[in-house]
Specification:
100 residues, 2 domains, two-stranded antiparallel sheet, 2 strands
Length: 100
């Protein structure tokens, strides 16, 4: 019985130390967020000192929003916001190329 509890304890410790490493690798592989505004509200990120920007990864893409409450709106229709991100990123890239 002591041997079994030792194995369970070792597995729990290993799981607790390995899980954050996997989370970090997932963030490393995500495409960086290309905009300076919240994907949901279009507010400039970090502009309001009372709202802390929130970042997460969706389908391999880093997403940044102005606050955690915008995540609920994102989760209602992620396809809509991912399409918006693609459009906005293309606009920003074109403006950068043309020197605007």
């Amino acid at each position: 019985m002591k041997k079994l509890s030792w194995i369970v304890a070792a597995a729990l410790v290993a799981g607790a130390t390995v899980t954050p490493a996997f989370a970090e690798k997932a963030k490393e592989k995500a495409k960086p967020y290309p905009l300076e505004t919240c994907l949901v509200s279009d507010e400039k990120l970090g502009e309001d000192p009372d709202m802390k920007p929130f970042a997460f990864v969706h389908a391999g893409q880093e997403i940044k929003i102005c606050c955690k409450s915008c995540k609920k709106d994102f989760d209602k229709d992620p396809k809509k916001f991912m399409a918006k991100l693609e459009d906005e990123a293309k606009k920003a890239k074109n403006e950068k190329k043309s020197g605007k």
